[in-house]
Write a structure and sequence with these properties.
Elements (H helix, E strand, L loop, with lengths): L6 E9 L2 E8 L4 E6 L1 H15 L2 H16 L1
Antiparallel strand pairs: 1-2, 2-3
Length: 70
């Protein structure tokens, strides 16, 4: 099994109706995959879940400020 490498760069490109994702590690090693539109959507959902949804926090801050102004 390969060792874990630190990500340095991500490149994306559309190729014949699919999407090519190129990941480059800090040591220059690259890894390319082809993904479908659905796989990209699933990846985006996974990343959204991982990072959280900032929209809810912004709404809470706005709501709190409005309540404090009354």
């Amino acid at each position: 099994m390969n060792s874990i490498k630190r990500l340095a760069r991500v490149l994306t490109d559309e190729v014949h109706g699919e999407y090519q994702i190129t990941l480059q590690a800090e040591d220059g090693e690259t890894f390319r995959v082809i993904a479908t539109e659905q796989q990209i959507a699933d990846l985006m959902d996974e990343l959204d879940d991982l990072l959280g949804d900032d929209t809810d926090e912004e709404d809470e801050v706005t709501e709190h400020k409005e309540m404090g102004d009354e």
